[in-house]
Amino acid sequence: MDTKSQNKAVSLLLLISIVILSAASIITSFEKKLDFNEDNISYFKHSSEINKDVIRYAKNLQRYYIYYNNFDINKATLKLSEIDNYIATGEITPKPRNFYANIKPFLEDEDSSGNSSSENTENYTLPNPESLYNFSIESSTIDTLITRQAELSDAINNYNSIENYLLTNDDFHYSLYSNILCRVVATNTNDFYKEGSYETINIEDPIFSINFNSELLNDSFTNNGLTCDISIPVTTSASTRRQMLLLQDEIKYNNILSSPVLPLCLLGIAALLASYLYLYHKEITKEILSHLNQIYAKIPAIFTLPLAIILITFMFKYNNVSSNILTMGLVSGAYFGTFTVLIITCFIVVFFSLFISQGIILFKNPRLIFKSPTTQIIIEAILDIKLALKSKRYVLTCLLIFQAITIIWTIGAMYISLLGANLLLRTFLIYIGLTVATLVSAVIFKAIVAEIKLRYYLQELADGKMDTIPEQTGPFTTSINNINKINTGLQNNMNEILKSERLKTELITNVSHDLKTPLTSIISYVSLLKELNIDNSKANEYISVIDNKSRRLKVLIDDLFEASKLSSGQMKLDKMYSDIVALLDQTLGELSYKIEESDIEFIVSTSSDSILVNIDGQKMWRVFDNLINNILKYSAKSTRAYVDIKEDEKAVVITFKNVANYNMNFDANELFERFKRGDASRTTEGSGLGLSIAKSIVELHGGIMNIVTDGDLFKITIILSK
């Protein structure tokens, strides 16, 4: 790894450390100081587990020594045996019946000793348990005996369970002092007041001011002339001792975490790290922070602003809120929860740092607002809707507009919900929900836009508009960009083809132009030689051959030059209304000597003696000249050629028909290609450009030229608009 990469890693690590230290200082500044310490600690009051256990213990003391005070277990057991014998002797089958069916058991929750203790039987009314066995069996009905049997059985079981719980419980010791007898009447230790204990509490303490058995628990003993003390002995159980140690650890941790010096120290360390970065890694740090700002700037302000308002409202409204979240997290081992709080606070620190930084940037340069993601999103959405309307995809356009309205509604609801900032949790949840709804609607919006664009640009390509697909970004644009790649490839191929055609045209034009000058000289000198009347038959023969070949070469060069002009679009028309019938007669007249030599009979028929068409007479004469010369070169001997001219309200149709003197075993439309000749052996005169030139001239007039073959019948049709 090079030095620059190492410095960048160090800078990034230090920035993360600064954020964590800042977040930790914020959390510790809210840590609440406990209202107790090593000097005034009360395990009964300040440990939730011990508090819960001692209240359970006091309830069972109340049940055993007050509710069951006059309950004689021996009498109850004897009476139950008598009832069982009486029912068995009378051959009566007892029906199971539980008087306590609607009441939860006395001892419900399992404790560490394997016994259970009720937490939910705080308000119940039962008959005096001694009355369950103080009755006469002989004077009771069978139904009454069955009921008594079930009630007495439950009372005996409950009494034994409570007694076993008190005997086996090692967490606490108790002492019951009779105010009437002035002595201790019950205890579970040898000498309650002399043994070592961690803490002792009287049952009249406010922590026992709870409703139990239709009266306050701490009054139930006083009302019966008893004073009850409960202690945590030095021989208490391991579970209770562990709770005491946790409470002591809570005090130790809280002394550090709630100290006002701790957040200042953390901020001081963060400031030192920031100073180090500024002095030794300034440029790299600026680069990292600039990159973070660029990432944050891509988030639309419509989402970040409500979150900032919620967080700022929370800070102002609950600036005096404090808790023991760090203390309890470390003591109970809930490190994940503490870590989660730290991560959330780090996010808040980073968020506000970037929020304030972006606000300063916009304040210095307000024009950046118009380049912000929010503005760009709005502009892009408007352009997308315009394109949707232009595409005439009405169903998709309606769906798109509906989605746009949904997005506007969710964003508006997001900001309206800020009015209920007094309920921050609800507001934050609404913000999260509406943000998710907005993002989902935006995704659906972009999907519909992508579908509309895909169909629109495909139609544009089908219409031959090759340059209409801009580069697409965002989701659902892969298909459009792939079409754009195809379009780009086609354009490149077309450009290559056009370039090749242009080069060929330029070559033909340049060669034709360069050949004209020497050829003109050759023709001129041949004419001079012919005027000398040389008395040499061989020389005259050679001169005649040179004359014929040079004139043929001139025709070829003229055709090449004209074809290149037509291909390059340089040929201009000088159009005027001309008589097409007269133009055809003129062409036939000029070629009459060739017609007579060819033994081809031309038959011309017209629908009118004069037909006016808006044409360039010179160029159209060239079309007729080329077509008639082709007929003369490629028609069978002693055959007829037909030329028909017909007109209607909109067009003039000119047809040339003849019988070919060769087998046309090819596509007739190939004759329109340059240098293509019907005579494959190329023994006839001609350049192979005649039909190509004729077709180009007709199309330049906005007309149509077609070739049709039927066996050896060859027909050319020209259609010109009037």
Mean pLDDT: 83
Overall SS class: alpha+beta
Q: Portion of residues in helices? A: 55-70%
The largest pleated sheet is described as: 5 strands, mixed
Strand content: 5-15%
First and last CA, distance: 81 Å
User: Strands across the major sheet, in which order?
Assistant: 10-12-13-15-14
Number of helix segments? Answer: 21
Unreliable sequence segments: 91-125
What shape does the CA trace take?
Answer: elongated
Radius of gyration: 56 Å
Instruction: Count the beta strands.
Output: 15
If you had to describe this structure to a student in words, what would you say it looks like?
The protein has 21 helices and 15 strands. A hairpin with a 5-residue loop joins β1 and β2 (116-117). By secondary structure, the chain is an alpha+beta fold. The chain starts with a helix and ends with a strand. The chain has a five-stranded mixed beta sheet with strand order 10-12-13-15-14. The chain has a four-stranded antiparallel beta sheet with strand order 4-3-8-5, with no helix packed on it.
Set down the secondary structure blueprint.
Blueprint: H1 3-29, H2 43-46, H3 48-67, H4 73-89, E1 109-110, E2 116-117, H5 142-168, E3 173-178, E4 183-187, E5 197-202, E6 211-212, E7 215-216, H6 217-222, E8 226-233, H7 238-257, H8 261-280, H9 282-297, H10 301-317, H11 325-332, H12 335-364, H13 373-391, H14 394-416, H15 424-462, H16 478-531, H17 537-568, E9 576-579, H18 580-590, H19 592-598, E10 601-606, E11 612-615, H20 617-634, E12 640-647, E13 651-659, H21 690-700, E14 704-710, E15 713-721
Parallel strand pairs: 10-12
Antiparallel strand pairs: 1-2, 3-4, 3-8, 5-8, 6-7, 9-11, 12-13, 13-15, 14-15
